[in-house]
TrEMBL record:
<dbReference type="InterPro" id="IPR004045">
    <property type="entry name" value="Glutathione_S-Trfase_N"/>
</dbReference>
<dbReference type="InterPro" id="IPR040079">
    <property type="entry name" value="Glutathione_S-Trfase"/>
</dbReference>
<dbReference type="Pfam" id="PF13417">
    <property type="entry name" value="GST_N_3"/>
</dbReference>
<dbReference type="Pfam" id="PF00043">
    <property type="entry name" value="GST_C"/>
</dbReference>
<dbReference type="InterPro" id="IPR010987">
    <property type="entry name" value="Glutathione-S-Trfase_C-like"/>
</dbReference>
<dbReference type="InterPro" id="IPR004046">
    <property type="entry name" value="GST_C"/>
</dbReference>
<feature type="domain" description="GST N-terminal">
    <location>
        <begin position="2"/>
        <end position="84"/>
    </location>
</feature>
<dbReference type="InterPro" id="IPR036249">
    <property type="entry name" value="Thioredoxin-like_sf"/>
</dbReference>
<protein>
    <recommendedName>
        <fullName>Glutathione S-transferase</fullName>
    </recommendedName>
</protein>
<dbReference type="InterPro" id="IPR036282">
    <property type="entry name" value="Glutathione-S-Trfase_C_sf"/>
</dbReference>
<feature type="domain" description="GST C-terminal">
    <location>
        <begin position="90"/>
        <end position="213"/>
    </location>
</feature>
Length: 217
């Protein structure tokens, strides 16, 4: 019986982050999809985590329920280790990995979400100034990341880490909101490597039937 169950939605960026890590480990896990129309699934999520955010990981073998993607990834790496070293053993590399995890979540994904949320509103009610500020914040983040990461294979160096799990969804969606492949060649090439990675391909394939719901065209 599979011990781990991830409560998720196929379009959620933070669910992607967790799924990539689980796939990197190569361990068995089950999925419980949360949809707005599925009241039973929503009630399950609320019972597990009253803040009602996903993903949420349930480890039935250890009676553990965990929210927050970065914490989920570190937990799985510690308690159900597979082939994936999410956090490098080297202390300096570990700090760089954790820093980049925060930068991708806070400085890339947060502005993306601001633009997305505005586009969920009727066009006449959208805050153009907020959208403009979010796009400007993304361009600033692109410049910083292009300079900081140039020459590396993966975000924190030669090894695929937690930082890359964070980078994949944030950059994938950011490129749809404020395209960067033509202006930031390292980031563009890096996103291509991420999207081609074996742990990422099934995540993108599972999301494809829902892609039309993404509101920024």
């Amino acid at each position: 019986m599979t011990a781990l169950t991830l409560y998720y939605h196929p379009l959620s960026s933070y669910c992607w982050k967790a799924l990539v890590a689980l796939n990197e480990h190569g361990i068995d896990y089950a999925l419980r999809q949360i949809d707005a129309a599925d009241a039973a699934a929503g009630a399950e999520l609320t019972a597990l985590w009253p803040m009602q955010r996903f993903p949420v990981l349930v480890d039935g073998a250890n009676d553990v329920v965990l929210p927050e993607t970065s914490i989920i990834i570190e937990y799985v790496t510690t308690r159900h280790p597979g082939a994936f070293a999410a956090i490098p053993a080297d202390p300096d590399a570990a700090i760089e990995t954790r820093l980049l995890d925060r930068l991708f979540d806070n400085d890339v994904m947060t502005p993306v979400q601001k633009v997305v949320f505005e586009h969920l509103r009727p066009e006449a009610e959208r805050d153009a100034a907020d959208i403009g500020r979010a796009r400007a914040a993304l361009r600033k983040a692109y410049d910083m990341l292009e300079a900081r990461l140039a020459g590396r294979t993966w975000a924190a160096g030669d090894a695929f880490t937690l930082a890359d799990c964070a980078a994949m969804p944030s950059l994938h969606y950011a490129d749809k909101v404020e395209p960067f492949r033509a202006t930031h060649p390292w980031l563009g090439d890096y996103l291509g490597r991420l999207e081609a990675r074996a742990s990422v391909v099934p995540v993108l394939e599972a999301a494809a039937p829902y892609a039309h719901f993404f509101p920024v065209k």
